[in-house]
Amino acid sequence: MTPNQDKLNRLAHVARQYYLEDRRQSDIARELGVSRPLISRMLSEARELGIVKITVSLPEADRPSMLHQLRQSSSIRDCVLVEDGADDDATNQALSQGAVQLLGQLGSRRLGIGWGHLIGQLVTWLETHPQPGSTVTDICPLVGNASIPARNYQSNENVRLIARQLGATPHFIYLPALPEGLEEKQLLCSSEIYRKIQTQWALMDTALVNIGNYPSSPDFASLVRYGDLLQQEHTCGRLLVYYFNYDGKIIESDQDFAIQIPLELLKSCRNIVGVCSANTSASALHGALRSGLFTHLVARAELVRSVLN
After folding, report:
1. Is residue 177 within 8 Å of residue 209, measured between CB atoms?
2. Residues spanned by CATH 3.40.50.1360 within the chain?
3. Helix (H, G, I), strand (E, B), or coil: what is residue 137?
């Protein structure tokens, strides 16, 4: 086998992992012991050499058919579909733009925001594309603040930044997403701080909710909240700090001490927009659609095609 053939095989392996197995570039890089930028360059080279051939069709071309299928098989009323970008960051920025455009189409005024990677990307997009003419007048978080420093999970800060770019009034939740336990949650949820955010949740007309994957290695807090229930129920995805399985069942536990909008209150919201990131898996989207919770969807067109097919 010649060196050239070795290189072609390596490029084909990376392309297969990324395009067919829906793995993140960072995960492929970690497995191969190389940098993420190198993986990006290898994918570009695979396209240049014809190892990867991409057929691009505008979302509008088959959007009516896909929307019809979504309406027939789920609670989705409308959707925004975007094509894959050059890399995950570009795709997430396109998804963020699509989410903001959808808010305008809906005429959203009182907005609730979840958390996660795509919400952080939305903040980044808005910082360079402010929307002073937005219809949104008020914005609040749907889940408490995380104890980790990652920007994607700082609910109040994300609300502040998004509100500034939309010209809206921010409302904050001065409570942790994951308190010490059930007893502390009950104490915090009886406070005036919680009652104020409950009022905002009851008034909102649109909720922007992340659809994420269930991690292969559950964090300690999830194990405490659910025990082995998540494994028993074959969990495949996450929305806010709730988990659900492939059949759309949202897993509930008597020991769940997370502070977030109650499901019944979320369900009463007129528009519940599910937003998928570039890395949301087909199984996670499938379960989210089966839950019957979402009225609108922002996702990669190819991801929706794979679920519908």
Report:
1. no
2. 59-308
3. coil
Cα 137 to chain centroid distance, Å, stands at 23
3-48: which CATH architecture? Orthogonal Bundle (1.10)
Element (DSSP H or E) covering residue 288: helix 282-290
CATH 3.40.50.460 matches 59-308? no
pTM for the model: 0.79
C-beta atoms surrounding 157 within 10 Å? 15
For residue 297, the surrounding DSSP H or E stretch is: strand 296-300
Average pLDDT of the chain, as a whole number: 90
Q: Are 89 and 180 in contact (CB under 8 A)?
A: no
SS3 for 246? coil
Contact 216, 235 (CB under 8 A): no
Q: What confidence tens digit (pLDDT) does each residue in 182-222 have?
A: 999 999 999 999 999 999 999 999 999 999 999 765 577 78
Asked if 302 and 20 touch (Cβ cutoff 8 Å), the reply is: no
For residue 94, what are its two tokens?
A: 């396109």
pLDDT, tens only, 45-93: 888 888 876 544 445 567 788 999 999 999 999 999 999 988 899 999 9
According to DSSP, the residues that pair with 275 across neighbouring strands are: 210, 298
